[in-house]
């Protein structure tokens, strides 16, 4: 069920560009982020079961959606340590992906195809590095699903909660001349903050990932959806891509 939380001067069916998060929104990874974090933490001497590990894991959970290298900078203090942790994290996550432990969120591909059939441009974005994003896309067979995929390095290195990924999607696709005609969907509070800061008129939280309704609404969600499968209807698009 769709819950509309704020009003907007732009009608939802005026949207021309849709920026979708991946893990937790269009992609179900079954908690692989935490498994990969464990590998990175152990590499830097943080053992599971210790108070230090519990504190760092709580921070990882709270910052889901943020650029991973940024999270590791916060956790480990120095650039060198953050880069070491991030390299181990990305390698571990990529190996888990290659092991077949990711799948599309039910209805995600159909939603993307319906939006594109209706003439909207869809971009997939992530807080992971490019190599990990490409591994996920390959595992799902999504390499050609959308015209553009973005990671923080594609937006000057700043991921969420900054607006850069959303604005990079607008600039690189040329899909619209107004930020008010952009819709953003994600499963974390940082996705919501990024969309709001970019000026998107639809910032939809989905309940298939890291954060719950209260966290999403507190971060500025204009709508809360059960999953991304509900997004086409919200934007006035039917399952076959026709206007509703």
From TrEMBL:
Gene3D superfamilies: HAD superfamily/HAD-like. It comes from the Bacteria. InterPro entries: HAD-like_hydrolase_sf, HAD-like_sf, HAD_sf, PhnX-like. NCBIfam families: PhnX-like. PANTHER family: PHOSPHOGLYCOLATE PHOSPHATASE, PHOSPHONOACETALDEHYDE HYDROLASE. This is Phosphonatase-like hydrolase. The lineage of its organism: Bacteria, Bacillati, Actinomycetota, Actinomycetes, Kitasatosporales.
